[in-house]
Each structure stands twice: as structure tokens, then as C-alpha cells.
């Protein structure tokens, strides 16, 4: 049950999500099918797969998660909540020559290093095979990130168990990529092809948002119904401070951030600025955003990503806050250096708009909060997401585009001011989309049912393996 006092100060959405989480705790805890979870080491991939694992554990499955030492911290909320039904399998990160020594996470690298990270983890194939052979009750299936599919699908086949591919990108982008495999680089072509050939695909999306594209993937690529849209996935411990413990260190304590937002009397008056864990802004981009925030006079929270640790990779002209900016806007805004409690910020009643790169996880978090998006797509699937949310659903406003582009500060300042208006049509549509998202994850909703069917698929494989062993 939820303690009533714990809900004070939360907005209605936050309260409803907390209640949903509480209801899920009523699932049976008996040991179910044992599955193996293998994540790609980037925040935008690890965190939603951890959230999916959380849902599977709540539905009675047992899980072993492959992880390398420096990524173990992302599993702490899951381990504290679900022990002993979730265990870690910790292997040292294999050395790989193109990668800087000691790097185990994409947060410290540009996107061009994705193949190198995936290929490095592929060196664990033989050790994982040996671990499986010696386990007293080995997993009956693998749930792995799409970017690792080129070797996890082969591993699963070698072990005679299915591999199910988790896809933390939006369906529209994946449909486009699948349709253009011949134009992809060899790494992505191999990974996407292996994913299509896996037992099934799991998307962090929902039917009401991308149903047409989901049907297209079933009809054109997988040629079966084993495509599950299970989002928006709720964070582990969605109803309390656990949602603030998902990342690394922050320059401002979480309770101070929430207290500052509580002090904002007007609802939807705060602009949140953040570009996720992967995008690092140049000095000129930082200057343009700072000038726009200062000129607009709006209240704001700006999450500034730490510079990449490898200067030879990321350069030193990054994440530089203009001199004197923080002093000049004191009282009007907060600049958070490092990790920001983004989920909690977006769900706060005072926050009304979000300047974002339109990464998929960030977009879904904003959708669940009913936030107006100010879109600055930069790379990967960002452009597909912007098209979906700005052009098809009308819940986002295009602001800028491109990884190296620099917005006009005066125009951006005007957009910031307008985005705090309660009469913005995009805001009204965002609230409608939020209702659809909540309905999807509510008991009986499309995503809720998809999760149940995914668990049925995984559990049925446990039964098949038992039958095979009993007949030997």
C-alpha cells in the first residue's frame, strides 16, 4: 500500500504512477522462468532495459543481468528492490584497441564508437557460453539490446535458447532502418538483420503512438506477431525518490532541486533544458542557450552534461557555461552540472516545457508528464522522433536541428517565453497524448497486455525446456 503522506507535494500524474507501481507489487513472487538480460552500456539503453527488467520481475520472472564493473551502479535500485530474484553476472570489460583505456560506457564517447563498444562486449561470447554450461539452472532465454544482436543471437542459437531483442529506439526510426539495410554500415546492417531474425522484438513505445509502424514491422520484416510495444516503461521505484537515483553525481542535491521547484508558485512556468547523457554541446551552442535564457527572463533548470573525459575524443570546447551567467540569473534558474533528476523535474507541476534533443527516453518521459517539447534533434533517431511528435501529433515545436547548429538566441528567447503560455495548442495536445500513454500502461491497457504476453512467451520456453529434459 502507498503511504498517503508520501504523496504530498506530488502532481496528479506522479500520484497516479505511484499507485500503478503499488498495484504491480501485488504480482506473485514465486520463481518463474529464468532469463538472461544483456544491456548495451549507454544510459539511454541501460536504464529502459532495467525498467523493463523491473516489470518482468514484478510478474514473477527471475533474472541474471550481465554487467561490467563500472556499469554496476545503474542496477542498484533494481537489486535493492528485487533481491534475490535478480542477480548480476559481472565480467571485466574486455580490452579493445580503438577504445580509450578504462572506458566502459558510451557517455564518455561520441556515437561513432558504438560498434567498438559492441564488438568489445562480443569478446565475452566464450566466457558466457562456459558460464551457461556450468550453471545449475541456466536461463531459458536471452533478452538483449538490439546493438548487441550480431553476437547475442548467435550465442542464443549455440545454447539452443531464444534471443529476444530489446529496442530502445522509436518504432518509426527502426522501421526506416530496417527498410534501408543496404545503405547501413556493416555493423548496423549485421545487428539489425540479426535482430529481425531473433525470436521477437520489444519496443519501449505504445500502440496508440506508433501502432501503424508496429504493424508494418510485423508484416514486412518479422512476419510474425512476436513484436511487443510495452512502453512507456515506468522507472524503478517510480513513486518515490528512487527515480532520482538513476544516474551519476550531481552538482545540486536532489532535494534542493525539488525545493526550488516547489517555490515556483505558477504552474507550467519553468523551462527545463537538457540534452541527455550522450550529447555534449559546444561553447558556441552553450553561449546561445545561455543568452536566450537570460534574455527571455523565464524561470529555468538547465542540466549541463559533464565534458567527455577523453579530450582526444571529445575536444575541450564543450559544456562551457559562459562567465558570469549563473550569477546574473541567480534566483531565476538552476544550472545542474552532471546528472539531473530528469523524471522528477518533468513531472513537477511548475515545469511546462522542455528544450530537448528528442532522444527517445527523454521524449517518453516528457509524454508521461504532459510536457510541451521544444525539439532540437541532433543525431540517430532524433529526427524521426521530432517528425512523429511535431508533425504527426503536434506536441512539439521545432527549434533547431543538427549536432553542430547554433540557434538564434533572440528567436530562442521568444520561444521560451511563448512555451510557458497555458494556451499553446501543442500543450493541450501534449496533455491528450499523456492520457493515452497512461491508459496504455494502466491495467488492461495495450502496453500492460503486451508485457503479459511477453512474460507468457518467456514462460512457455521454460515449459518447453522442462519437457525436453524430462524426455531425455
TrEMBL record:
Sorted alphabetically, which SUPFAM superfamilies does this protein's record hold? Answer: UDP-Glycosyltransferase/glycogen phosphorylase (SSF53756)
Q: What processes does the entry annotate via GO biological process terms?
A: flavonol biosynthetic process
Alphabetical UniProt keywords: Glycosyltransferase, Transferase
Query: Which domain of life does this protein belong to?
Result: Eukaryota
User: Coiled coil where?
Assistant: none
Protein's UniProt name? UDP-glycosyltransferase 89C1-like
Q: Please report the organism this UniProt entry assigns to the protein.
A: Durio zibethinus
- Protein family membership: Belongs to the UDP-glycosyltransferase family.
Amino acid at each position: 500500500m502507498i503511504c498517503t503522506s508520501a504523496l504530498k507535494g506530488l502532481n496528479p500524474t506522479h500520484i497516479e504512477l505511484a499507485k500503478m507501481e503499488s498495484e504491480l507489487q501485488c504480482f506473485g513472487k514465486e520463481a518463474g522462468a529464468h532469463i538472461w538480460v544483456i544491456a548495451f552500456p549507454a544510459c539511454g539503453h541501460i536504464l529502459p532495459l532495467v525498467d523493463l527488467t523491473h516489470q518482468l520481475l514484478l510478474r514473477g520472472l527471475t533474472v541474471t543481468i550481465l554487467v561490467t564493473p563500472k556499469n554496476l551502479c545503474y542496477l542498484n535500485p533494481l537489486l535493492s528492490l528485487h533481491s534475490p530474484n535478480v542477480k548480476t553476472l559481472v565480467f571485466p570489460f574486455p580490452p579493445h584497441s580503438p577504445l580509450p583505456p578504462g572506458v566502459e560506457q558510451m557517455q564518455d564517447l561520441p556515437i561513432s564508437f558504438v560498434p567498438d563498444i559492441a564488438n568489445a562486449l562480443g569478446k565475452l561470447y566464450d566466457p558466457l557460453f562456459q558460464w551457461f554450461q556450468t550453471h545449475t539452472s541456466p536461463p531459458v532465454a536471452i533478452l538483449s539490446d538490439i546493438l548487441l544482436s550480431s553476437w547475442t543471437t548467435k550465442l542464443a542459437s549455440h545454447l539452443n535458447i531464444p534471443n529476444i531483442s530489446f529496442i530502445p529506439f522509436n518504432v518509426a526510426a527502426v522501421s526506416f532502418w530496417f527498410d534501408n539495410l543496404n545503405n547501413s554500415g556493416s555493423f548496423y546492417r549485421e545487428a539489425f538483420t540479426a535482430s529481425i531474425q531473433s525470436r521477437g522484438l520489444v519496443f519501449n513505445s505504445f500502440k496508440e503512438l506508433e501502432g501503424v509502424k508496429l504493424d508494418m514491422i510485423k508484416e514486412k520484416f518479422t512476419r510474425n506477431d512476436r513484436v511487443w510495444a510495452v512502453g512507456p516503461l515506468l522507472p524503478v521505484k517510480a513513486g518515490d525518490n528512487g527515480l532520482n537515483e538513476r544516474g551519476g553525481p550531481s552538482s545540486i542535491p536532489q532535494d534542493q532541486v525539488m525545493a526550488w521547484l516547489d517555490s515556483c508558485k505558477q504552474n507550467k512556468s519553468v523551462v527545463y533544458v537538457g540534452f541527455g547523457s550522450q550529447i555534449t554541446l559546444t561553447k558556441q551552442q552553450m553561449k546561445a542557450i545561455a543568452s536566450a535564457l537570460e534574455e527571455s527572463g523565464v524561470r529555468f533548470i538547465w542540466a549541463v552534461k559533464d565534458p567527455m573525459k577523453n579530450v582526444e575524443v571529445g575536444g575541450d570546447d564543450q559544456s562551457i557555461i559562459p562567465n558570469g551567467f549563473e550569477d546574473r540569473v541567480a534566483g531565476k534558474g538552476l544550472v545542474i552540472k552532471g546528472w539531473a533528476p530528469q523524471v522528477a523535474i518533468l513531472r513537477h507541476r511548475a515545469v511546462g516545457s522542455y528544450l530537448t534533443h528528442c532522444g527517445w527516453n527523454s521524449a517518453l518521459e516528457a509524454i508521461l508528464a504532459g510536457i510541451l517539447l521544444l525539439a532540437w534533434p541532433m543525431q540517430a533517431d532524433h529526427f524521426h522522433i521530432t517528425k512523429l511528435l511535431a508533425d504527426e501529433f503536434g506536441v512539439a515545436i521545432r527549434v533547431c536541428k543538427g549536432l553542430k547548429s547554433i540557434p538564434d538566441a533572440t528567436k530562442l528567447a521568444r520561444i521560451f517565453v511563448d512555451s510557458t503560455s497555458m494556451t499553446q495548442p501543442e500543450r493541450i495536445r501534449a496533455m491528450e497524448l499523456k492520457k493515452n500513454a497512461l491508459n496504455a500502461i494502466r491495467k488492461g491497457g495495450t502496453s500492460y497486455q503486451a508485457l503479459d504476453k511477453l512474460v507468457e512467451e518467456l514462460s512457455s520456453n521454460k515449459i518447453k525446456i522442462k519437457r525436453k529434459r524430462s524426455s531425455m
